[in-house]
Structure to design on (282 residues):
């Protein structure tokens, strides 16, 4: 990990106690002569006029600290991966699988980062989805889903050019191991350790009960064609962006060359995190 000289701070604007946590974070960093680059919402919270647009921060900073929930982190993940800037998420939301560092351990985790502790860096690969001439990169998942009032949709699924199934369902999720604890988990998909090179293909409420979530190699190419023409269907990317799909449209999904360097808590391993967030053993 390279020496940290500047830190970008991205926030969930309405997080509780945000002003106090922001002030603590900035005081900690400036006390170590590290430049703090605030996104506009963070600067406004502190009544400062030196904020940057969120999308401009990753190319300017050596580290990004997210004060918020997983949605806030996902909003910066793609740009951070492109810029090669590691991201540390401080949980000011609810579950927080990506923003796993508690507020009370924020400075402890930062000390570990600043000391160059490589053991807390968790590489997370992204997937690439193509729809026509549009290309998207996602950390968690690509979802084909119907609108609230639409009937089930039918799709045709191929893996490495081999037809797998033609299911009817409310939708379909293609998730990375990082995304295995997100939407895919609620659809009955398995939990994968982050380093496992695999995709999850998980149907959403399938009409055929025997069509279950599958795990396929991340070296595979997945193709999904929409066969339904009368319903409103969307392609949703990391729960952040969405585009409409028409009958006959095909989505191609494969492993991206992008990788996010996610900072984990020095006090937690992946299984302890699962136990805490999912309440295992309580």
């Amino acid at each position: 990990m390279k020496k940290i000289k500047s830190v970008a701070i991205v926030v969930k604007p309405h997080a509780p106690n945000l002003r106090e946590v922001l002030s603590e974070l900035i005081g900690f960093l400036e006390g170590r002569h590290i430049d703090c680059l605030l996104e506009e919402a963070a600067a406004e919270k502190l009544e400062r006029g030196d904020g940057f647009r969120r999308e401009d921060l990753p190319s300017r900073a050596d580290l990004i600290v997210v004060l918020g929930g997983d949605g806030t982190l996902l909003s910066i993940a793609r740009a951070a991966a492109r810029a090669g800037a590691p991201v540390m998420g401080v949980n000011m939301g609810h579950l927080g699988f990506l923003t796993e560092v508690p507020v009370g351990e924020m400075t402890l985790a930062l000390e570990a980062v600043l000391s160059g502790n490589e053991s807390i860096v968790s590489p997370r690969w992204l997937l690439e989805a193509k729809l026509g001439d549009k290309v998207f990169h996602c950390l968690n998942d690509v979802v084909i889903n119907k609108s609230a009032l639409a009937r089930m949709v039918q799709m045709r699924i191929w893996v490495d050019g081999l037809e797998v199934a033609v299911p009817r369902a409310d939708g379909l999720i293609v998730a990375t191991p990082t995304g295995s604890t997100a939407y895919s988990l609620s659809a009955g998909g398995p939990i994968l350790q982050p380093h496992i090179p695999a995709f999850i293909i998980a149907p959403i409420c399938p009409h055929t009960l025997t069509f279950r979530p599958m795990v396929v190699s991340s070296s595979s190419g997945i193709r999904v064609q929409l066969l339904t023409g009368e319903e409103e269907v969307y392609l949703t990317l990391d729960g952040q962006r969405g585009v409409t799909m028409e009958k006959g449209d095909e989505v191609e999904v494969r492993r991206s060359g992008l990788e996010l360097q996610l900072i984990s808590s020095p006090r937690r391993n992946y299984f302890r995190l699962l136990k805490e967030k999912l309440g295992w053993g309580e």
